[in-house]
Design a protein that fits this description.
The longest helix has 44 residues, at 248-291. The protein folds into four domains: 20-54 and 245-291 and 425-464; 68-242, no CATH class; 293-414; 497-670, no CATH class. Helix 12 (295-308) packs antiparallel against helix 13 (320-348). Helices cover 74% and strands 4% of the residues. The chain has a two-stranded parallel ribbon. The protein has a two-stranded antiparallel sheet with strand order 3-4. A two-stranded antiparallel ribbon has the order 5-6. With 676 residues, the protein is mainly alpha-helical. Mean pLDDT is 76; it is low at 1-21, 120-139, 180-193 and 470-476. The chain contains 25 helices and eight strands. A hairpin with a 2-residue loop joins strand 3 (416-419) and strand 4 (422-425).
């Protein structure tokens, strides 16, 4: 007796401990999910490391990254350039033609490989590791190709060569290959060495040295491509770390970066594991809870229902009467347990269902007299007993299914945990894991991981450099790189940079003036104190005219804004080379740069309401606008810079929006002067 009691108590305690252990495991994992993944201490360490090791800034939006179409276009440019040179420009120099053709073929293969990789499904390609996805492009064939066309371009031996198409095609090639080393859309990393970098810079320098007049769209587009290429190459040079000299601090920071990276990886792994395990535990609990609903009753009646749900009839080797006896025998044997299990269900029922269940019970009680049931004909047995009994069993099973569905729907709300001194439901947990706060936590960890790993890669590049050794194509061309960087810098931060920025300023100002004239005409004809004239007060042709003018005016404003933005983008892209000016061209560019910076800060201050800070001055918005106009906005005098033009364009934004409102009000998109 005591032994039995002790055994039962042990089983109870074992079950309690098992449940308690599961609850504790779930609680601790949920606490980890809600806890701050990146601690303040860890953030501070990453911040300190980042301050000591500044990474390159982001790539400007107006320099698009390469894609499959770009690579294919570059292949065509390669072929067209080679065809021109091969046909007309070699002047019997067989060695040069052979080298150019060979290197061109190699580059075509590399570009086709890039197109294939970029065209992959991003999901599948992103799953590869950095080592697997890195494609190494030998700098030698590229530098051979660039040097070849550079020589021919410089010697001017081509009688049929049109410089404009050559410049456009060369810019395509240069812009594409200058991006090698950046992440492509598919996650592929492309890398090359110093020889390729120096050959790109040399050819950019040579193109700049020839001419740029900015009198047509082709010149502007080519200059933008070359400027983007120059920006990318500067980042390539930074990634080669040729100007950084390693010190003990670099070695110490690499150790810190590696340690931080491991810590973040562990946190990310733990976070993902806890998320997976929490959802698994909750799902398992939910499944167990659903399955436990009237478990014994369902287990008892389900197989019986399967046997009696269809009327009986004669079958080969088994008569209907035999089946009748078989069913009555099995049900009579189980009648006591059926009644005892169904009694609570029947008692708990109410309404019309209760009456049906009373009849159900009477049918069950007939099983206490099996001989009487055997006296039924097969037809009567089916119609007067079996059919009703099967319907009642089906009703019970349907009720159990509804109860299970209810448990499933309410499970997350009805189950709770005590976490961080507060009660939270399973629903709260699921919503949190699927919500933006948890995603932000994951992205924060991944972002920190990338920053630390990028710093580690930079430090490794600095430490890995060898001094006073023979270098290969990865480290070679350093002298050429430094020389060419300085040469191209003189063009960008000099004659052509000044011409480009002033061309964008003039074009933008001209289009903004054009916009004002269009708006004035619309204002006189279709606006009254800023209110759009009622559509019903205008005849159809006048509405059509208003739509044409409004659409044209809006397009002009967008064009004006994009022109000034091109100038701004050029300045922001090259701001790292605009130091103290030492000649008139550089002084102009520097003034344009400063005016653009001040204009942009005024725009930001308008949104935030904060004061404007500029060269040690702290000004209100009105003071800053006045300062900008006085220092940088005197049209027709020397002080005529981009910043005031940007402000004038932005000041017309509300007018452009008014035109957009008119287009919508008059339903311009659906109007036509011709009957449909």
């Amino acid at each position: 007796m005591n032994c039995g009691h002790n055994r039962a108590l042990s089983l109870i305690l074992l079950g309690t401990l098992s449940f308690s252990s599961l609850a504790d495991s779930l609680t601790s994992r949920v606490e980890n999910l809600y806890d701050h993944a990146l601690t303040k201490e860890l953030k501070d360490e990453i911040k300190d490391l980042s301050k000591r090791n500044q990474l390159a800034t982001g790539r400007p939006a107006f320099c698009p990254l390469n894609n499959t179409a770009t690579y294919q276009k570059t292949v065509e440019s390669l072929k067209s350039i080679v065809a021109v040179f091969q046909d007309d420009c070699f002047d019997g120099n067989k060695a040069l033609i052979d080298e150019l053709l060979t290197s061109s073929k190699t580059l075509e293969e590399e570009l086709n490989k890039m197109a294939k990789e970029t065209g992959k499904d991003p999901v599948s390609s992103s799953s590869t590791t950095e080592e697997e996805s890195q494609i190494e492009v030998n700098g030698i064939p590229f530098s051979q190709f660039m040097n070849g066309i550079n020589v021919l371009f410089s010697d001017n031996k081509c009688t049929n060569l049109s410089k404009t198409p050559l410049l456009e095609r060369s810019a395509d090639i240069i812009q594409t290959f200058s991006q090698f080393g950046l992440y492509s859309a598919s996650g592929v990393i492309v890398a090359y060495g110093g020889l390729a970098v120096s050959s790109i810079l040399r050819f950019i320098s040579n193109i700049f040295d020839k001419r740029f007049e900015f009198e047509n769209e082709s010149d502007i587009e080519t200059f933008i491509k070359l400027n983007c290429a120059y920006y990318d190459v500067r980042n390539q040079v930074k990634s080669l770390e040729i100007f950084d000299i390693d010190t003990g601090v670099h070695h110490e920071d690499l150790k810190i970066a590696s340690d931080l990276s491991n810590q973040i990886k562990t946190k990310l792994k733990t976070l993902e594991e806890d998320k997976k395990k929490v959802l698994e535990i909750i799902s398992k609990e939910q499944t167990n809870s659903i399955n436990s609903v009237d478990k014994d009753l369902e287990k008892l009646i389900s197989p019986i229902y399967e046997k009696i749900k269809s009327p009986i009839g004669d079958q080969p080797g088994k008569s209907a009467v035999y089946q009748q006896a078989e069913i009555i025998g099995e049900l009579s044997y189980s009648v006591d347990i059926l009644v005892s299990k169904l009694n609570p269900y029947i008692t708990a029922s109410s309404g019309p269902e209760r009456f049906l269940n009373i009849l159900f019970k009477k049918q069950l009680e007939k099983l206490y007299a099996p001989e009487e049931l055997m006296e039924f004909s097969v037809k009567d047995f089916n119609d007067l007993f079996l059919k009703d009994l099967a319907s009642s069993f089906k009703r019970v099973l349907d009720t159990i299914a509804k109860k299970k569905e209810n448990v499933k729907e309410k499970f997350d709300e009805n189950n709770e945990l005590f976490v961080f001194s507060q009660i939270i439901s399973y629903k709260d947990i699921r919503d949190y894991v699927d919500g933006k706060d948890f995603k932000k936590k994951e992205e924060e960890l991944k972002g920190a991981q990338k920053v630390v790993d990028d710093i580690a890669a930079r430090l490794k590049a600095i430490i890995a450099k060898k001094e006073y050794t023979s270098d290969d194509s990865k480290d070679g061309g350093i002298r050429e790189i430094i020389k060419s960087l300085d040469t191209v810098r003189n063009f960008v931060y000099g004659k052509y940079g000044k011409q480009f920025i002033e061309k964008m300023r003039d074009l933008s100002r001209s289009q903004n003036k054009n916009f004002n004239e269009y708006y004035k005409n619309i204002e006189e004809n279709y606006l009254s104190n800023g209110t759009i004239a009622d559509k019903d007060s205008l005849y159809e042709d006048k509405i059509l005219n208003a739509c044409v003018d409004a659409n044209t005016g809006r397009e002009i404003w967008v064009y004006s804004q994009k022109l000034s933005e091109l100038g701004y983008d050029f300045l922001s892209t090259n701001s790292d080379i605009f130091g103290d000016p030492d000649n008139s061209d550089r002084k102009k560019i520097k003034a344009h740069n400063d005016s653009a910076i001040l204009a942009r800060r005024i725009m930001s201050a308008r949104e935030s309401g904060s004061p404007v800070k500029f060269y040690g001055k702290t000004m209100t918005i009105d003071e800053a606008e006045k300062y900008l106009e006085e220092e940088y906005g005197a049209v027709g005098i020397r002080k005529d810079y981009l910043g005031p033009v940007m402000m004038n364009v932005v000041s017309n934004r509300q007018k452009a929006l008014k035109l957009q409102e008119l287009i919508k009000t008059y339903n311009c998109e659906s109007l036509s002067p011709f009957p449909r």
